[in-house]
Amino acid sequence: MAQNRNDxxxxxxxVKKYNLKxxxxxxxxxxxxxxxxxxxxxxxxxxxxxxxxxxxxDPDIYEHSYMExxxxxxxxxxxxxxxxxxxxxxxxxxxxxxLVYNSHEEQAKKLITKFGPEQEYYYQDELARLSMVTKxxxxxxxxxxxxxxxxxxxxxxxxxxxxxxxxxLHEKKASVILNIVNEHMYFDLYEGVARNxxxxxxxxxxxxxxxxxxxxxxKVYYGLLKEPDVQTLQPAAPxxxxxxxxxxxxxxxxxxxxxxxPLYSKKPKSDPNAPPLDRIxxxxxxxxxxxxKVKALREASKRVNLGPDSLPSICMYTLLNAxxxxxxxxxxxxxxxxxxxxxxxxxxxxSMTPIKLREMKSAEQLKEIDRDAEDVLIRMLDDRKAELxxxxxxxxxxxxxxxxxxxxxxxxxxxEDCTIRLWSLHTWTCxxxxxxxxxxxxxxxxxxxxxxxxxxxxxxTARLWATDSHQPLRIFAGHLADxxxxxxxxxxxxxxxxxxxxxxxxWDVCVGNHHRLLTxxxxxxxxxxxxxxxxxxxxxSADKRVLIWDLAHGHLIAALTGHGATVHSMCxxxxxxxxxxxxxxxxxxxxxxxxxVDDISGxxxxxxxxxxxRDGEPYLLRTFPTKQSPFLTLHFTRRxxxxxxxxxxxxx
Length: 652
Prior knowledge:
Blueprint: H1 2-17, H2 21-31, H3 38-43, H4 48-51, H5 61-75, H6 78-85, H7 88-101, H8 105-115, H9 124-130, H10 143-150, E1 153-158, H11 159-172, H12 175-184, E2 185-190, H13 197-203, H14 230-233, H15 262-265, H16 287-301, E3 314-319, E4 326-331, E5 337-342, E6 346-351, E7 357-360, H17 363-367, H18 376-379, E8 381-387, E9 389-393, E10 399-404, E11 410-415, E12 419-424, E13 429-435, E14 441-446, E15 452-457, E16 461-466, E17 474-477, E18 483-488, E19 494-499, E20 503-508, E21 514-519, E22 525-530, E23 536-541, E24 546-550, E25 555-560, E26 567-572, E27 578-583, E28 587-592, H19 593-601, E29 614-615, E30 620-625, E31 631-636, E32 642-647
Parallel strand pairs: 1-2, 3-32, 25-29
Antiparallel strand pairs: 4-5, 5-6, 6-9, 7-8, 10-11, 11-12, 12-13, 14-15, 15-16, 16-17, 18-19, 19-20, 20-21, 22-23, 23-24, 24-25, 26-27, 27-28, 28-30, 31-32
């Protein structure tokens, strides 16, 4: 009853704070609190989340309880030991927060100093930040304590293991730990044998534990959208006069029928796993886009088929005299343009072909152009103002990413100045500034179908935008730290994000919710790439590994190790057979993705927990070291030539 009264007083305090007099009087009347003094409501315990840590117990019990728990875990049977060990870290964290909240600073410091170093290496950063919080008033608004207070730590555990744990806690009357387990931990139960060490390690590492199985239950339409029929892309040919129909016509040699272009004989296939075409509104193809599609298909027909016996040729572009000045690089889809972002807030765009970068004619000159001419788009551009390189200025902080529109008429850039800019590649000027993020924007990417783009930021959100709207269409909130990288799925219906909270999420752009939560990385994630078929996602991290995920079930299927530093760039070949990864260790690695997928397809998927994760060593085809150039980006051309961009680092 006393607790209910306190809750009511807390609500009254909030109502009073916002000067809602009418609501305050009604609440007092209904709850029978008419006679309370004015100042009591103000002193009520408003911060109910923190109030959960209120404890009247002896502060010295904490260390003893933790040692008892640790001893119990160590002495458990091997079959249960590894799952039980997963609770040690969250228990330590919440014990520390509880001690600090109740002003037992000495005991809190002693606890974290004694047991902190024995926790897993990937938790040390959080523990160091947590140990900076030594007073109760430092807790409110603190990032790390807020994260642990507001999110239950998830542990996937077998029913037998959990029964064993609860029996031990009740027998020992370990009320301190029981409270933490009940209040701040979520056990994702499954029937069957407890997991072994490698299975536990595979999916652990994220800030608040593992993904719940419920997080990965929703169906994901990972298939590709049906491509438009090539025959509909070609302009219609004029109808031929049929001489056979005219009886009076003199005998003429029969005209040869034009040869059928093999390009037009291929019918586009429907993917059973693809989303409905009208699931999200996509821009209609213009004539120019249709011509571009035909051109891309012609290029693809000349593509080199890659495999273990025919590795791609690699062309490396090295930026010289760029130490500490170059921040990012990006190539357009047809490999004709390259954009490089600099720390002085400028962007430079180079043409990769002999065709120079032309500018649109002035308004006066445009009036004289015949608008109905077939080459009207070419006539609009001024050859006299053509240059090999263009510089774009407008941002007021370092550039973190650029992204070309699929039709190469526009380009996006994001910066430390919290804005995203849209540039016209006809006039070479900034057309729109998108403001929405509150902190630096780390990444921005165009949708493969154009019109939409996604950005992510230090404000822990990713946002979906359309080029014709100043406001974001969706805000993807759920990550617990910086969202460092974002990328569109090939069918434009989903967005993948990687974060410093060491998790990867897949968001549905239609509803704005996350449909996959993928845990397993042990450090922030800095690069993502979807396979050509859309079913698999590769993620590269500061833990020097590349993890491969199956989006159909949300399972981790392989861990590719071998890089000596952060994996900052990755790219699938156009035929989907090879994965190229580039790191800050100045090494480019090629992996046999076809072999990996073939090996997995024969496996029976166990739905209760993650299947065994494959080691990457058998799939590594070749490693190419650069002299002293870490990779900024990797890109396969339409014909499967691999382009790499890096900057030469002095004194590495």
